[in-house]
Design goal:
The protein is built from 11 helices and 8 strands. Bound molecules: guanosine-5'-diphosphate. Belongs to the GTP-binding SRP family. SRP54 subfamily.
C-alpha cells in the first residue's frame, strides 16, 4: 500500500533538491504535484484540499533553517501533516479501571471484523490479558461458527447464543443486544479482563443495522468502539466512515486488508474526516497478520 503515492511524492521532492531558496512558484508547483499524487491515491477531495492548503501555508511561512534545505523542509512539513491526519501519537487501547475492558467492533459486512476479533484476542492474550469473544453477529448464517473457528485459532473462548434459548441467562438466540449484555456478564463472572464484541454488518450502510449497533453500544457501554474498514474500498470509505461515526461514535479505526494493493487513500481520508485515530492495521487472513498502527512510522514509510 502507498507504494505509488510514495514514489510520486519522492519524485516531487527530488525536483527541489539543490534549490537554495524556494519561490512561491516552486511551492505552488510542489503543492500541485502533492495534490495530484494524493488524488491518484484515492484520498477524498476535501481532505486533499485541506491537506495541501496547510502544506502550502506552512511551506511559504517556514523560516529558512540552517539545518534543513528547502526540499528537506517541505518533506518535514508533509511528514508532520501526514502524522497528524493519521491520528498523531500511537493510540493504545484504553483499559477499564475496574471490571472488564469492553471492545466493540463495527463495520460493513466483509470489512474484516470477525477476522480482526481473533487477531486482537490473540494479541491481547500474548500480553497477559484473558479475553472473551462475544458473537453478536446473528445476521450472517455462518458468522457465529466463523468466530468460533477464529477463537480456536487464537486460543480464546467464545460466548455465543444457544439456538432456541429463551431466557436472557441462556444466551438468547436472535437478539444481539441481549447476547452482548449476557457476554459482558459472562466475562465479569468468569473474570475475563477484556471482552471483544463482534457485531453484524451489512453490505452497505443500513438504518436497521446502525440502530442495532447503536443499541448494543448503549447496552454495554464499551471502552473502545473500533470501526473496521477495508482499505480497498477507496472513495466509498468516507461516506461509510461518517455514517458509522454518526451511528456508533467510534473511538478508533482499524484498517484491514492493508496487504492488498489498495492505494491507501481510504486510510488518510477516513482518519482525516472523522478526526479519529487509526489504531490497528490488519495485513492478512492469518491470526497473526496484525499490528499496532504507528502514524509516524506510516508517514515515514510514505515519504521513504
Ligand atoms: P466481517 O464480515 O467484517 O466479519 O469480515 P470477515 O472477518 O469475515 O472478513 C471478510 C473476508 O476478508 C474474509 O475472507 C477474511 O479472510 C478476509 N480478510 C479479513 N481481514 C483481512 C486482511 O487483513 N487481509 C486480507 N487479505 N483478507 C482479510
Amino acid at each position: 500500500m502507498f507504494n505509488s503515492l510514495s514514489d510520486r511524492l519522492t519524485a516531487t521532492f527530488k525536483n527541489l533538491r539543490g534549490k537554495g531558496r524556494l519561490t512561491e512558484a516552486d511551492v505552488d508547483a510542489t503543492v500541485r504535484e502533492i495534490r495530484r499524487a494524493l488524488l491518484d491515491a484515492d484520498v477524498a477531495v476535501p481532505v486533499v484540499r485541506e491537506f495541501t492548503a496547510r502544506v502550502r501555508e506552512r511551506a511559504l511561512g517556514a523560516e529558512v533553517s540552517g539545518a534543513l534545505n528547502p526540499s528537506q523542509q517541505i518533506v518535514k512539513i508533509v511528514n508532520e501533516e501526514l502524522v497528524e491526519i493519521l491520528g498523531g501519537e500511537t493510540r493504545r487501547i484504553r483499559l477499564a479501571k475496574t471490571g472488564p475492558t469492553i471492545i466493540m467492533l463495527a463495520g460493513l459486512q466483509g470489512a474484516g471484523k470477525t477476522t480482526l476479533a481473533g487477531k486482537l484476542a490473540k494479541w491481547l492474550k500474548a500480553q497477559g490479558h484473558s479475553p472473551l469473544l462475544v458473537a453478536c453477529d446473528l445476521q450472517r448464517p455462518n458468522a457465529v461458527t466463523q468466530l468460533q473457528v477464529v477463537g480456536q485459532r487464537a486460543g480464546v473462548p467464545v460466548f455465543a447464543p444457544h439456538p432456541g434459548a429463551t431466557s436472557e441467562l441462556e444466551h438468547p438466540a436472535g437478539d444481539p443486544v441481549a447476547v452482548a449484555r449476557a457476554g459482558v456478564e459472562e466475562a465479569r463472572q468468569k473474570l475475563h479482563d477484556v471482552v471483544i464484541v463482534d457485531t453484524a454488518g451489512r453490505l452497505g450502510v443500513d438504518a436497521e443495522m446502525m440502530e442495532q449497533a447503536s443499541e448494543i453500544r448503549r447496552a454495554i457501554v464499551p471502552n473502545e468502539v473500533l470501526f473496521v474498514i477495508d482499505a480497498m474500498i477507496g472513495q466509498d470509505a468516507v461516506n461509510t466512515a461518517v455514517a458509522f461515526d454518526e451511528g456508533v461514535n467510534f473511538t478508533g479505526i482499524v484498517l484491514s486488508k492493508l496487504d492488498g494493493d489498495a492505494r491507501g487513500g481510504a486510510a488518510l481520508s477516513v482518519a482525516s474526516v472523522t478526526g479519529k485515530p487509526v489504531m490497528f492495521a490488519s495485513t492478512g487472513e492469518g491470526v497473526d497478520d496484525f499490528e499496532l498502527f504507528h502514524p509516524d512510522r506510516m508517514a515515514s514509510r510514505i515519504l521513504d
